[in-house]
Design goal:
alpha/beta; six-stranded parallel β-sheet; two-stranded antiparallel ribbon; 17 helices; globular
Length: 396
Amino acid sequence: MFRTVCPLVNIIFHQNTLSSHHRSLANLTSAKLIQETKSSSSTEDSNEWLWDYLRHRQSFQSLNNEQKRQIISLEIQTLRESGERVPDHVPDEYWPELISSPVLNNRKSMYNYLFLREVSKRKRTAEKAALQERRSQSNIRHVELAAAGLPLTNYPGYKSMFRQLSGGHTDRFIRDNKLITQARLGEQVLIDCGFEVEHARSKYVSKLVDQIEFFFSNIHAYHSPSFVTLCNFAIDGQIQREFARRHVQGRSIACFETTEASYLDLFDKQQLIYLSPHSPYEMSEYDQNAVYIIGAIVDTSVGGRPLTLAKAKRDNIKHQRLPLEQYLKFGGGASRTLSLDKVYNILMGLKHGKSWSEAFRAIPDRKVAERFDQARPYRKESDRWGKWTGIRTQEV
């Protein structure tokens, strides 16, 4: 009897310890898709690895690249049948990252990103088609007006010396003139792109480029905004390819400078201040003679590691953090991580004479539970355990 019960116990234990990845794929895979996969092969042995995988005898990492591609294609089909957001087509440049991701949730995150990318592309295509249709209708109208001997437009200044400027032309003219003046005066904010190779996955590069372009969305609100320079910029990197892709589509913003040089080669080390959320030194005021550095990190996979602080210490330059806790009380589930454009807007507000509470208005209300006009006292973490370890915070 003991010999009879042992195999049954082993089977039950094996079923209870199945990985979530195999359970999800087994539940999502319909009988129809499995039957189609079986019928597509010439022999039963060619699909034996698939059945082993679905029966939890093989892991995703043990498969070869061709088998992983088939598993990913099967996942996309089953997720689409269940109503999940998956792309219609996976670009060739994203296949290596999908193949190297052994966890299903990571691949589903990539599927969602590619789906949103396709939706955005279709939206832009529809907008271009609508614009082309309006232009064709306008050309037909011009031909009719010319045949009738009438002016080709109803704009009052059509026959005057003044050129018609649209809102986009005017904003671009004002923005470029403001930034060119500050570039000649040497007032700059540096964006350190040196984290691209080790700490930037491809799906986060688009978000990073968006945040850099958002620097200039509110540029008209400042009298003398600092010029932006992207240092440690890889010429053949992912960020450059994303900028080139947007330039081809005609929707890029190029009112900043890029350089492969390090910030140590551009400015004196005494002028540089690296802004890091992990710095023990709190920023008390904006230094008009300093050059502030913002780390270009958007990828959440870094897990809160103090990468910018470590780099500032390695290069032996000053580092500071914004006094967020003194003027803001964040919500329970709100992240204290600020995007690059928010940090830039805070710096520009301080540069133009705003107080800390006014400058922190750049942080959206969805993150903040309460704001304070005056600095509130609070205990630093080092004060709680520093007297036992001998650590004391020092000001720069």
